[in-house]
Amino acid sequence: METVAQGRYAYVANGTGMAVVDWENPGRPQTVAVADLNDELADPTLSVKDVKVDGDVAALANDTENPGGIALYDVSDPTNPEYQSFYEPTPSANIHNCHLVGDYAYLALGEPWNIDTDGDGQRDLARLFGDAGVEIVDVSDPANPTHASTWYLKDELPAYAKAGVNPCHDLYAQDGLVYAAFWDAGTVVLDASDPTDPEFVTQFGAAPRGDEVIRPWRVEEETIDEYFAEVFPLARYYAAPGNAHYVQPSPDGDHVYVGAETFLGGPGGIDVWDVSDFSAPTQVGRIDPPNVSGFRTSHNFDVTENRLHASWYEGGVRVYDVTDPSTPTEVASYDPDGVSFWTAVAERGFTLGGVYGAMSEQGGMTVLHTDEGVKEPPAFSGADSPSGPEVDPKDQS
């Protein structure tokens, strides 16, 4: 699934942990280590979709509540990752994505807001994604991570929290700011220069009905399936507009790129926002999905000073010139048949494509360059497209 790179080593989330790939020779990448959380936790349920690395620390996000949180590894020797600890939020939360910068990890929260109206200690109402937010964790000592703060959408934008369609799906931290993708609530920017006290800065790109409040799930009166069939706007959740899925600022912070992941009504693209004035964010550009067959909505991407490296599932990996962010121009593409891509990242002048194992014969990593290498597809064959989004509202109940 997710792939990140730091120098000659790439780190790949593989469902139960991570693989470390040495690609010093880009034509002969080799797996040099595998870290499996089954070896560290007692009887876990694992869904490790995300990995982040900064310096000597790697963080793996586990997208279940058994246990939910992040695992921290010492990767000072990338060929021998050493498990340090597992951090679990309180209350428990499945962590779909995280980010890691310096001494802090940033966790995307998409939990239900559980309400006990009669005081019996049990929830009888639940607002899906009502406890969406950002949790910041001090990982300066990876063996002993500690809670720094939690920011909830409901505290600043309560109508969006009550709308039931706005998980914090992914986030990116840069220069003391946190950029968080909140699905139909759009993108929220926080000032986390003091990680113990993040403050709301701005919001942009929300769907027109992103703050349309729906009634909560009556836990004791109806099943979750009944709630989804009769109340939850599932079709609207799956379709544009909105669906802020992945977000990353430009290195200078003047622009923010927001990708939409859609499953109904056509594939989502990547919007470009001018945020040089946080009081008035303005959309100035857009990258449309590639015009190819297959499942081709925007997924994860990476932004450099003048390039955007993007994955489009079965639409391949594509690179865009964003020297002028208002007019992105495609300059390179790699789209072999039967291969689906989870992410694309830039490192050492190359593009690394993370191959999504659930939609390809096997997962892996592709090393790409516009001028080097033999332009032949890897030996993968295709698989079925997904039937729903990575963040399934039912999984959050």
From TrEMBL:
Pfam families listed in its UniProt record: LVIVD
Highest taxon in the source lineage: Archaea
Annotated stretches, region: Disordered: 370-397
Identification of the protein by name: LVIVD repeat-containing protein
Lineage: Archaea, Methanobacteriati, Methanobacteriota, Stenosarchaea group, Halobacteria
